[in-house]
Specification:
Chain lengths: 215, 705
Amino acid sequence: MKKLYRNIGMAAIALLTAGMLTACAEEAKGRTAADGPVPELGKAAPAFRVTDTYGKTHSLDQYRGKWVVLEWLNHECPYVRKHYGGGAMQALQKKYAGKVVWLSIVSSAPGKQGHHSNEEANELTKEKGAAPSAVLIDETGTVGRAYDARTTPHMFVIDPQGRIVYMGGIDDKNSTRKSDLQTARPHVDIALQEALAGKPISVPTSQPYGCDVKY
Amino acid sequence: MWKRLLRGGLLVLIASLAALPSFAKPVSTPHVTAELLLDKSHVRPGEEFRLGLHLRMKEGWHTYWKNPGDSGEAIAIDWVLPEGFTAGPIRWPQPHRISLNPLTTYGYEGEVLLLTSMRAPASAAAGSSAAIKANVYWMVCEKVCIPEEVTLDINVPVAGTPSSPGPSATLFERSAASLPVPADGWQIQAANRGDRIILRARPPQGFRIDQPGISFFAATGPLIEYSAPQPVSVADGELTMELTRSPYAQADVRRLSGVLHAPAGWTPGGPVAVEFDAPIVDSAPVAPAASERPPLTLFLALGLAFLGGMVLNLMPCVFPVVSLKILAFMQRSGDEPRRVRLHGLVFAGGVLLAFWLLAGLLLALRAAGQEIGWGFQLQAPPFVAAMAFLLFALALSLAGVMEIGTSLTRIGGAAGREGYGTSALNGMLATVVATPCTAPFMGAALGFALTQSAASALLIFTALGAGMAAPYVALSLWPTLLRFLPRPGNWMVRFKQLMAFPLFATVAWLVWVFGHQTGVDGILRLLLGLTLVGAAAWVWGCWATLDASTRTKATAGSVAAALLVSGFVLSAAAEPVSSAVNAAVQNTSGVQWEPWSEQRVAELRAEGRPVFIDFTAAWCLTCKVNERVAFSSAEVKKIVGDRKVAMLKADWTNRDAAITRALGSFGRSGVPLYVLYEADPQASPRLLPEILSPGILIEAFSKLQ
């Protein structure tokens, strides 16, 4: 009897554990962009699958093990123009080229400001001298909504384990004046320096500022 | 003398000539016309005056307040002043909330006059005029945003004579009337509660805090979510507002500063906005019905958890399992006291360990961003299936399907000894089956636990486990207590068999829960799975007898295990169905229910209807008992109809992030929870007890207006 109880007990615990694990596996699977969770610092970055301007598919999963930067982009937005016009954004992209995967995401809906055909978008990238790893076209706004992307620019830094380690503005000077680039604290640049050096990120969130994303 | 007079007269003449209207020229951009205005006819040396930046936006376009909100940028003025003139900061009239889904900004549409106080130096020469220049920058937005920059000039006449209001005086007055005033005489507190900031404001007597449309504008960001609703409740002259913390807010932001806006004015003809800057304190979660429920302290929560843990033993899902434990104690009553004590402690250890494991898992999943609460494991159909398997197997063994002969002799003889491992497993088992039951006192303690740091949360779970194990520890420490029970004997065998039936009943209930989660097909899968459990028990009972060879036992064991596993796989593969479907089929008791949603609550409250919310789940036995007992009563049904109470059911049987959040907003993390809103849209909700009776409901409903 005693053995029997112990065996039943063991089997029960094993079953319960199996039940829990199955349940948890389902949780992980079920968390998709459509649920509209708010991205949270230190938590898993929402997964996405979207094609770039060359028709190539990118998913966050495929960059597991790498640092990823997400940049919400609308080349007609004056705030974005500040950062590209002065060459600052391009410089940042080039500074971290090869060290991070830099994905510029355009969530403008067709017909709205900042929406471009793949060819136009590639032309713009070339003309601006930008150097992202890819420009992703998210015209349904799925990725933008999953990340609750509010402004252009709006920046996220994701660690090799897929967690958000920085989210917010590109720097701390909410303005379109290029002169402010000199005096602003470059949040993303500092976050990347700290992250790549294995240090904790001193300012992990800030107010995202810019134009609203044209969903 | 004449000369002096003449000179004086000349000066006056010049002064009055100079006191001609100040001279400024409006500048227009494609979207905005901008102009500097002076509030007076002229300025005397040493006198204070105000300059206004007057912006008129094209229809549909707007500019931004000092905190623009989710996007945009504040208007900026860079003054170029003559020698000796000084300028204060911009004083910003009350902005509008401009919503552009999903963003909200604070800004100005139509026109705005930004005020700046200035002072002329005493040395300013009367008769001169001061040329003041402003480099003004703004972001003007409609669907797109355009930054614009202009330079504006104004010539401010300086004269020795008393000044009179200038031609723009009305504009200045209107702007000044919408400037926020300091919240003097107000008591303002802000407290963190999870991802919310609870703002409490008590104005001086006579302020109209019960008007609709009161809202908060944050002066700095990132701190609050600008788009989030700001639910307001008013009680005893105090206004409570719930703000949502922005995910971009840094953890070290410790001050809430901004403007409380009352569209109809705080007092008749008085200011529409008051500004304040208050520290944010950390606080225990407080249910919105704060006046009735004092905030929990950790100490009180621990006490409640301990009590709740003790009461858990009596709950229907636990009793059959713990009764076995009592039997084991009785068997051992003749045993040496040291061993008995040890068994009691080991059992308690098992209970605690199970609570820690559950709490650890719960906290870890929450930390990983899952919107879950207490009882979460039962939201997973595979777990429910596993529970059903476990209890079914236990019931079969109690009923005697397995090892009939030996168990009879063992129970008959007082010499039977259980291993310590079995005691620990029993403890864990008791805990696991206890999870569907939220005992009275437990709800508040658990809700509190989940808002606290992991350490205090674990402490509360520990108290819960200690409470649950306390009776056994007491029994094992003072075995004399057992004397109150009948002497061990053959009745125990019958009792044991009898206890199989509550377990079977519990299995039936779990099948029903599983059915709610997975539908009729799911029930079939689970019942087939249970049939395989029965087969496994039969195989084990027939061949793995005490006198069987090791090989036979091993074969029987593997066959039984294979049957168990295939049964589990079969059951766990059932697909969950959505909870909306569930709510529709659950209208079984007398009262008419409709499915809950945050939006529906807001609509009904806006209509001025009282709203009752039943937060429930099929796996919550306490909820089901309440529903059978309280809501099926004819009097309850009648009073619900008479008072036109909207009855909403929030079904948490399957995982639902919105319901988890709603529970959290009442400081809870599990069901049952009963919330009653009065018809008055401003009144705070009332929480009813976890154990309901028709009397409690009738009393609560009859108090409604």
